[in-house]
Amino acid sequence: MITAFKDTLKVPDLKRKILVVMALLTVYRFGCYIPVPGINGKALASFFDRIPGTLFGIADLFAGGALSNATIFALGIMPYISVSIILQLLASIFPYFEQMLRSGVEGRRKLTLWTRYGTVILCLFQGFAVSVWLENPAHFEGVVMVNNPGWLFKLTTVLTLTTGTVFLMWLGEQITEKGIGNGISLIITASILSRMPVAVHQTAQLTSAGELNPGLIVLMCGLVFVVVGAAIMLNEGERRIPVQYAKRVVGRRVYGGQTTYLPIKLNPGGVLPLIFAVSFLTFPSTVLRFANNPFLQKLAHVLNPSSGAGMILYALLIIGFSYFYASVIFNPDHISEDLKKYGGFVAGIRPGKATGEYLERILGRLTLPGSLMLTVIAIFPYIIMHIFRIPYLIASMFGGIGLLIVVSVILETLRQIEAHLIMRHYEGFLKKVRTR
Q1: Rounded Cα distance, 218 and 224, in Å
Q2: Which of 24, 67, 127, 133 has the fewest CB atoms within 10 Å, i.e. is most exposed?
Q3: What span, in angstroms and rounded, lies between the C-alpha atoms of 432 and 232?
Q4: More confident site: 224 or 422
Q5: CA distance linking residue 169 with residue 116, whole number of Å
Q6: Cα→Cα distances 76→59, 62, 271, Å
Q7: With contact defined as beta carbons under 8 Å apart, do 67 and 35 qualify?
Q8: 34-38 long-range contacts, CB within 8 A, separation 24+
Q9: Partners of 140 in beta bridges
Q10: Is 0.85 surpassed by the pTM of this model?
Q11: Do the Cβ atoms of 177 and 187 come closer than 8 Å?
């Protein structure tokens, strides 16, 4: 591993790409400390400390603390991610979007343009909603967050937050084009990792106060390694279906006749089932939290994933969305048609409909253990929070959406760096995984 890191500095082009990524991510982190005018940042940060595990807390995790500190990047890059997910879902439902997605470079360029326009529209809506929410002291137990409310504050907030997200969208595209790795994913990863020093500081405070003993700290460190290992297994686990291609004679050349494999991931949906499950559960919980009715407030507590009933609902939603996204992302019918089109077939299975049914059975068998493993990793932070009596920010280091995103993005980035190293005859990071 150390040798591979040294080798990255020996390749000028790779070294330049890594420095570009580090420089642009540094610009992003500086922007997370530029406040939006007219907001009491300290009071807002104190409010976020009292509502762990809600939709606001999760949004703040993806924004790297920018939302709780009321900075120009408060909305983060999530509006762009949300619009991208919506367009992907539309592509699986409406033939027009599906054709656009499968029509090559021109179709993807048009889809990217639609994503940008949709991001701006969503940011305008979310920015206005945030400004209205901040102006009402009733949402913050009577604490005034905005000293001079009014339309001037609303307009300033909407323009500032929208511009911040558009700048992040451009920054992510620059990282993808001039750096290495996916820029949007790296921005989210940097946001999540930026909360780790805060979690370590809170752990040190609890330890000095006598609420956590050193033996428990050692146990927690061991659990982190176990959960990270499980996340890597979930991200890398796959079933390889052997595929053979028939020989074709075109002129004097013979094409095909080779054997390869079709990989089916243990968790095809990645973190998408978690994102939709937690949004579906915490959105009504967060809204009902501000109601004055005692019954609605009790219902909000029940729907929160940190409660027993909420944890069960969260687990069921994750399993359900895992099956849904597995069928959307890996479409057995489309795969079987493509195999038949290019002369490929699974040994012992007839091409066409029979191959689609076979792939669907394999997908169903993999999705169940994958969804259960994903569920355990997702709810593990809430279990740790109850057992050890620690804040949610510390417990989030033991699993959940953040850990899975960080693991998957780091592995994908290491693969791209490794490709550059191997191309220049250096050993990569993932040698053991590749040769296994």
Answers
A1: 10
A2: 133
A3: 14
A4: 224
A5: 8
A6: 8, 7, 18
A7: no
A8: 34/71, 34/72, 35/69, 35/70, 35/71, 35/72, 36/70, 36/71, 36/72, 36/74, 36/156, 36/157, 36/160, 36/161, 37/156, 37/160, 38/146, 38/147, 38/148, 38/153, 38/156, 38/157
A9: none
A10: no
A11: no
Instruction: Label residue 436 by pLDDT band (50, 70, 90).
Output: very low
Which residue type, as a one-letter code, is found at position 324?
F
185: number of CA atoms within 13 Å, CB side?
A: 19
In this predicted model, what pLDDT tens digit does every residue of 248-307 receive, in sequence order? 666 666 665 677 888 888 888 888 888 778 777 776 766 666 667 777 777 777 777 777
Hey, what domains does the chain have and what are their CATH numbers? 1-194 (1.10.3370.10), 212-398 (1.10.3370.10)
Q: How far is CA 165 from the centre of its chain?
A: 17
Tell me what the mean pLDDT of segment 116-138 comes to.
Answer: 87
Q: How would you label 385-395 residue by residue, b for 16+ Cβ within 10 Å and e otherwise?
A: beebebbbbbb
Contacts of 324 (CB under 8 A, 6+ apart): 269, 273
Provide the 10 A C-beta neighbour count for residue 374.
29
Distance in angstroms (rounded) separating the CA atoms of residues 415 and 236:
12
Inter-residue contact 26 to 33 (CB < 8 Å): no
